[in-house]
Amino acid sequence: MKRFIRMRGVAAAALVLSSVGLYSTAVSSSGASAANAPFVIGSVNSVQKIDPDVVTNFLDFEALGLIYDMLVQENSSLKIEPDLATSWAFSNGNKVLTLHLRTGVKFDDGSTMTSADVVASLTRAQATATADPSASFIGSVTNIAASGPNTVVLTMSHPDVSVLEGLATVNMAIMPAAAITAGTIATQPDGTGPFEFGSNVANTSFTMTANPNYWGGKPSLGTVEIETIPTEQSISAALQAGTIQMGLLNQPTVVSTLPKTFKIDKALDLSYRALQLQDKKGILSNVNARLAIACATNRQQILQDSVFGQGKVVGPVPLGPYATSPVSAICPTQNLKQAKKYLKAAGKPKGFSFTAITSTDLDSTSAAQAIAMQSQLAKVGIKMNIQNLASNAYIQDWLKGKFQAAFAENGADPDPYVMYGRYFGAGAGLAVPAGYSSKTLQAELLAGDENSTAAGQIKDWKALSNTLTSKAVWIWLFDANDFAALASNVHGFTLSPVNTTQLASLATTSVS
Amino acid sequence: MSALLAVVRRTFSTLVTLWGVSVIIFIVLRLLPGNAVSAAMGVSEGLLTPGQIAALNRYYGVGQPAVQQYLSWLHALVTGNLGISLVSREAVSTLIGTALPVTLELALFSMIIGVAIGVGFGMWSALHPGRWQDDIGQAISVIGLAIPVFILGTVLVVFMSTHFHYFPSSKPFAGVLTNPWLNFQQIIFPALVLSLGIGAAILRTTRAAVLEVSSLNFARTALGKGVSRRAFVWRHLFLNALTAVTTMSGIQLGYLLGGTVIIEQIFILPGMGRLLITSISNRDFPVVQSTVLIFAAGFVIVNMLVDLCYTLIDPRTRKQ
Is the ipTM above a cut-off of 0.90? Predict the structure, then answer.
């Protein structure tokens, strides 16, 4: 018995000692933000590829967007502004684009950027062997030529002012011609951006250091590390433990649990949620049936149920100077009486049924959207069956158009041609999943693309929005907020709405 | 000689099992919709021209016939070369070489704690049947079996970070040799979470086995002969119950490898589980194949070792 008591005493002492040890470590870790320590960002994703011409993941774009510059960029108002090109002009009926380059810009390898580098970079992006997913954005470009050391001329096959938007993506990053020739871009990023590549440990971390030669001035943050933390709850825990200074979050529930000491920056994500409809066969080929769905839908309620209201109900063009307003030409808000009228006109006064696919792997909110919409449609007798698929199964079915309806989160762009040309334009690459085609839409897209006057473009893109919603081609739902949770000593960071360059303001961020 | 033959026979059947596993993994992965190209490109795959898709197929090596892919993988496996990751372009052996020690360390810690909980409380419970000590043991086993590891892990992480601003796993993983104290802090909490389920199963088995043995004639005879309490408990009861406890521990170790997949996600441990999840979502076939094969090999080898342990624990099996 005495031995037992003695053993218990030893165990209790060990427990107390270890608790004290762990607690002291806890306290020291929470205040361990030394001035020269890396600035650590937690993200559920990891950087997969480091060749800017082949990246497709958002985090790859965001990380490489800090290492590379493009010719132009989108500002926080989603307007095109200078980046490596300081000015530009369209000529010859919008078939020629002349770009004047910034001078004195250096790559990470120390060489100076010239027009030869720009020509080599855009030529690489266009090459079939590169398989650049944004190559179609400059598909109209038939010739890329240098005109002097600081001028580049793009010649297009037809008038195409949207080519400028295409040049703003990281897939069109400018890299040294010598590195392209040497074939080192895929392993050793070499750009002109505010940070230089440090290291990339697969599925674990991506590190960058400040570029001392950055043309915009050396960033205040010495080292930036993007750490992969598999769950948002763990990101929240890491923030509270003080081991990371910023967390990239999507789930409002996680954001709401953070203490008030953290600064929450939020921005409407430049992507939108929509119910895509395959309009070529079955009941959904009937425009009145689609309009009945549109009118029976309460978008605000879906926004509330799926992302706790953290976002905005939007139309086909969610953000930017051509944003759709009102969000729909037909039933911008729920109108059940009107929905029943459309059902009668469709010859289905008692309703009909169809199946919608979702993928919670791709969009964790899609099931909640579907359930909310299911109950709304049921009020007018429309039965929506829901089928949830794994990500790859969803993508395969989506690409082949093997669905009646699909809850989708699609990337957006301020330029409607860039956004919808690939779905509804002539010879569109995504015409099959788009599920709808019409000469009217094609003509409207082309008119907007060819028009270089601001007033003309506003008129053209409004007409496009009207056509898309008055035919209920798809049902556009909402645009959700993205969040960045910041430690209280982080200053100057603003989440950009452009989700491929969300971290751009790290160049001017500081830690006190 | 017969023991050697048994070992050889067992090793051969293990190899056959692993070959079968390799075939199943290979087929199942190919039955899944999509490939590395579609996983990498997502819906953007629809925007690629046929020439671009052909270029990507060459890059990812997904255009080869399935049989050729399997044979080249098997050949590489036998020669110790596990191939190259389709996504990170790193050698699979390097990725596994980094991840495997983390998972093994986690499994070892979990097993030690689990066995300590299971055997300790199991014995305590069995020696006091129907009394409050037994009730505590039963309660621990019910709680351990009922709470899923992902809930317990998440609650622990939230509790530590919210109340103590403490989450050592969120720091870069420290090796056991480079920073043993940080390494201990990073491993101990996920190990505790995993060990509760293991301990609960072992606890129930220990309790049942000890109670069964204590009711046998030889146990009563030993007590009648005046054997000391300690000798009776450990030599007569525990040793005779050890076969069942070992079997359960072996099974739990197998399941433990599966449990690490979830717990490594919650506790940000760069182990095999996290590598597997990431590779599956990226359709990174060379990594998935080799990772699953190592999990399967771990399960099979543990079972083989458990069988061999019987001969050490129970002399009767040696005679058989």
Answer: no
